[in-house]
Amino acid sequence: MHLIFVNYRTEDEEATATLVERELSRIFGDENVFRASKSIGPGSRYPQEILTAVRRCRVLLAVVGPRWLEARSADGATALENPDDWTRREILEAFVSGAVVIPVLVARTERLRAADLPPELGVLADCQYRRFDHRNADADLSRLADDLIGLLPELAEAARRNGYAPRASARAEGERVGDDQENGTARVRADVINHRQRGGIGNLNGDFSGTFISEPQGPVHTGNGHIFQTPEPHPDPRFSRAGRDIAHGADNRGASRQRSIRGRRSAGTE
User: Fold this and answer.
1) pTM, 2 dp
2) Is residue 181's pLDDT more than 70?
3) Nearest to 260 by CA among 249, 246, 250, 270
4) Element (H, E) at 26
């Protein structure tokens, strides 16, 4: 059974589809990658072979180039509107069978929009895509192969037998949330975290470590000194840092004042 089905339009990016299929076949083996021109033997019934392969595949790669949307049928109508168009039929069959559909956008091809597609294919615009550029072919093909290993772990053994070593992490870009242990402290890359900062102390640019405080509602202690509460009618928020006691007051209109408190040893009130 072919786990990967390569879908393409002949008058658009057939050469790119061939390149993608050959590299994936080298990595995973011919038996795991289907492309009609290669995989359907002489004398086979084309429609039956195509439909059987696409219904059994686990991932369909839809190779999309700059002429993909513009292709026309013999009657001059948009090819994608034609129910007999094989590019369209293969994609719809993949959706029906539950396969993962990945648009592979070639070079500067724009991202698909539902408004440009027939209603039946509108969901294709919501599928996360990958890009392939001939100037960056090796890296783009390796990334695609790693994505497929992530989706279909059973491909990992075939790749190993064929001498392919995936990257340490084969997960898609933007999906990684991890910790780097540095001096016993976890560091988190902010560019892989979806976070909306509304206030507090901290900066979410690049790497950050230590304490992050968002919208504190009371006294905050971030060091090893003392923290004090005052009996005043409107006590200020207090912060302690670097082993030194300080009282720091501010309101939400930007006013701020700070004074040092020395000689206090009580951790209660003053």
Assistant:
1) 0.62
2) no
3) 246
4) helix 10-28
